[in-house]
Amino acid sequence: MTGAVGLWAFIWWYGLRSLRTAGRADEYRKEIRALRERIDTHAKMRRPQPIEETRTYEYAVHGRPSRRLVLITGDLRNVKDVDVWVNSENTDMQMSRFHERSISAVIRYEGARRDPLTGRVVEDCVADELGRRVGANVPVEPGTAIVTGAHQLAERNGVMGIVHAAAVHGAAGVGYRRVDDLGTCVRNVFLRAEEIAGGGRRAGSIVFPIFGTGEAAADVESTVQSMLTAIVAHLTDSRPRHVETVYLLAYTDAELAVCEKALDACAHISSVGKAGKKRTRQK
């Protein structure tokens, strides 16, 4: 029995006891209120925990046997040989600082050229290219998607290209919040990803983080549902697609639970073996 469940059971027992001791009703009410406050505090202390291991949960797409939706867990840095990485970016296309805790920071740092001895960045490859591409044309419209090269991520992780999606926008004194139309954002990402090619082939796979759930603090459940609708629309489309395998990244245990629930409930896909498989680098 968990601490929270145990406390609730205690409250229930206390409630019955208080009915039998009406003379102390006010005192019992105060004690029950204090116990409820302890439960609230306990819940707030339970923060989503990062998933350390990279595992995959594969889903087949009905009527499209060559296409797959794959739930993948853990740190993006451990994702290998997925052709396109999606960066959840702001409408100013300003990437996070190297040591911030965000997808943008991971992509910026891992894509940079670094001193082999100290690890210090000597060329800010991805951010510099993104800056050149947008120039003075910022802020961009919410949902805009812009492609850059993978730079050092090509060698480190087997990435062909990066699509930077304007998934959050900020306001002075308020901070960032997720854009309203995530469907358009996801569709624009796919349009750009379909154009990425290299080494004599087109990109065939892509990995999405869950948009706007970092600093923008978007609701995970509604975000996953909006993204899933657009992802499934791409995978079930009858038109030819180069990008046929879509990965959705669950970084925390809470994100994994939400994603599994949403994917299991989706009528257009079916789980291919429920247990998550440990992922190893493809040869």
What would you note in describing this structure?
With 283 residues, this protein is an alpha/beta fold. The protein folds into 2 domains: 3-45; 55-278, Leucine Aminopeptidase, subunit E, domain 1 (3-Layer(aba) Sandwich), CATH 3.40.220. The chain contains 8 helices and 14 strands. A hairpin with a 2-residue loop joins β9 (197-198) and β10. α1 packs antiparallel against α2 (25-45), α6 crosses α7 (220-236) and α7 packs across α8. It is globular and about 80 Å long.
What labels describe this entry?
283 residues, 14 strands, alpha/beta, 8 helices, Leucine Aminopeptidase, subunit E, domain 1, two-stranded antiparallel sheet
List the uncertain runs: none
Number of strands: 14
Percentage of residues in DSSP E strands: 15-25%
Domain count: the total is 2
CATH topology of the largest domain: Leucine Aminopeptidase, subunit E, domain 1
What is the distance, rounded to the nearest whole angstrom, between the alpha carbons of the first and last residues? 45 Å
Supply the helix-strand structural class: alpha/beta
Residues in helix, %: 25-40%
CATH class bucket of the largest domain: Alpha Beta
Provide the gyration radius in Å.
23 Å
Largest sheet: 10 strands, mixed
Mean pLDDT: 88
The helix/strand series, from N terminus to C terminus, equals: HHEEEHEEHEHEEHEEEHEHEE
Shape: globular
